[in-house]
Amino acid sequence: QVHLAESGGGLVQAGGSLRLSCAASGRTLRGYVMGWFRQAPGKEREFLAAISASGGSTTYADSVKGRFTISRDNAKNTVYLQMNSLKPEDTTVYYCAAGSTFAIFPKAYDYWGQGTQVTVSS
């Protein structure tokens, strides 16, 4: 069982930056693909970024490409999402997830964190 905990969310002005962290406990993240998603109330969970187990491959949703960067530090059992040039429409809850398939679909991921709120003011 992998337990994931996101942190780093908060309130930021439009154009600002935040770095989200996803720390794992229970098992190492070394063999897992990691993804970041977000979900607004009443909407489906939206894929943002994924990184392969080795960290050698990444993929991004068009909505965040060029603004967000996913990275991982397997030694620290932690995955990051650096978010720059934030917009008010980025306001929502952000989740990290672990899975065995390099995919953009939520159902491909087996473990999820509780989420962290990001609020971007205009």
Taking the alpha carbons of the first and last residues, their distance comes to: 40 Å
Tell me the series of helices and strands, N- to C-terminal. Answer: EEEEEEEEEEE
Query: Which stretches are low in confidence, meaning pLDDT under 50 for 5 or more residues running?
Result: none
Roughly what fraction of the amino acids lie in strands?
over 45%
Radius of gyration: 13 Å
> What percent of the residues sit in helical stretches (DSSP H or I)?
under 10%
Outline the structure in words:
The protein is mostly beta strands and 122 residues long. It has no helices and eleven strands. It has strands at 3-7, 10-13, 18-25, 33-39, 46-51, 58-60, 68-73, 78-83, 92-99, 109-112, 116-121. Strands 2, 4, 5, 6, 9, 10 and 11 form a seven-stranded mixed β-sheet that branches. Strands 1-3-8-7 form a four-stranded antiparallel β-sheet, with no helix packed on it. Strand 4 (33-39) and strand 5 (46-51) form a beta hairpin. The chain is globular, with a radius of gyration of 13 Å. The N and C termini lie far apart (40 Å). 33% of the residues are buried. The model has no long low-confidence stretch (mean pLDDT 96).
What attributes characterize this protein structure?
122 residues; 11 strands; 4-stranded antiparallel sheet; single chain; mainly beta; 0% helix
